[in-house]
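Q: Can someone sanity-check these two? First one:
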Amino acid sequence: MHILCIFLGITITFLNMGFVTQKYGPGGGKRGELWRIEMKKKGVVLGTFSAKGGVGKTTTVANLGASIAQKLRNRVIVVETNMTASNLGLHLGILDPPVVIQDVIFGKNKIEEAILTTEYGLHIVAGTVAFTEELGSINLMPILDLLRKRYDLIILDSAPGFALEVIASMRCVDELLVVCQLQVPAIAGTLQSFRFAEKYKVPVLGVVMTQVMGKRFEIPLSEVRKTLKWPILAVIPEDDMVKESITRGIPVVLYAPESSAAVEYRKLAQLVLNHLKIRKKRGKARTRGRKR
């Protein structure tokens, strides 16, 4: 029932859309104003994946992005890469974006035209919930290469499963998070995701357990750790404030910052920030080594 409630909450997100600033281009300025500024950076692309749907992946992307944006304001962007069931915008209060990721993929618009900003410093490329066309093989690399030059962190919200759109995302990411629940189907899907990542030689940063209720029917965390043999970075409890925040179109870390889920999402954000700092230091060390 809790998963169903989350989906029902998404459908009425339009009740509150006040957190989105309908402007284009990084920094919330005029269209393309800062976009044309060349910046010497190469941002990290972090993918979020799950073989099973309904595990809280999009909720995790929205809250992780919003949390990190508090520290890296206007330097973090979340990107919808679930072309056939785009819900990321709904989680952030965006019902009908004027330009969507599908427009960019099919060459109708440039990526800078699809960027929306929020008053809390998170940038978004949303999708449309009305997409019904047949989707073949797609190439996200040119789009993400442009975003890498302008953002420190690009977080992708991928589709569940292993369809062509998921493969397109997997080929572009530097690392990935796998989102899971303490239930057998989700754990089996996580093992599939690990094998998929190994196939494409993508490092797994770790696992995020969501909607944890502490019920007897849930697989104990200790058993999950033994089965997955991978770091569990966060354990997000089941929290009614998450459902309410989705209804309002505001990440729970902003809507109810003291709620149990928000606290754990902020801890996850800090882990990712620390990891980014380590990556940056290693990159600088390698650069110095090549210059000698």
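And here is the second, same format, sequence then tokens:
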Amino acid sequence: MYTQHEKIRTPWEEEVSIPELLGHLFRQLRLILLSGLFIGSVVFFINVFFLEPSYCSSTRVYIHPAGGISEERLTYSQVQTWTALTEDFCELAKSRSVLEEALMRTGQGAGQGKRYEDLYARTSVSSEEPSRLIVLSVTASSPSQARDLAGAVREVSSEHMREVTGMDMVIVIDEANLPDDPCSPRILYNSLLGILGGAFGAVFLLAAVYVCDDTVRTPEDFDRIPGLCCLGVIPMGKVKTRRRRK
């Protein structure tokens, strides 16, 4: 006899109906939305109250020989040389000697080993080929500290390039700026990712539970099980009884 909500584990295989699965997920839409909002709220709370904001300051320089070279005298080998020097500047700007000197000039030279590794991870130097324009960025915990470090790294790198090549070839295009807003954490972006992640996670779990659930719930489910048939249905519920009067 069939009892409603009774779990029977059988070796039969049931094909998953996509419309039924979508209908099941639609009925759980409130739970999916609440899961997304909950995870998004947790991410927002962590970003606001536990993560320290970081500020990024950038400065731009251009590699060009002192005095300049006219277009008529410019040769391909000279272009290749300045391009190579641009790459050398990018590598030199993140060298230990440059970063440690920049820390000393900004008054952050204590514990140089640890400070150097930390500043190295927070310093970015990039150039777009074939341009000789270099963007140097430094991330720090305060706007003024980020600006001072970016300017110090640029100055020390320029001095080292002058000592190596014997020419003043680093032209400052933009001074290090004082950032107004933090570059990380990206609170709105991370919160939206948390909402989407929570919603998709809830959809995945609900779909997995639905697919793996082989509970026999209706008489039609018995038709899919070989060798079994439904004899009757016992409803689940409380039966009201009348008290006899004495």
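A (reply): Looked at the second one. The first strand starts at residue 2 and ends at 3. The radius of gyration is 34 Å.
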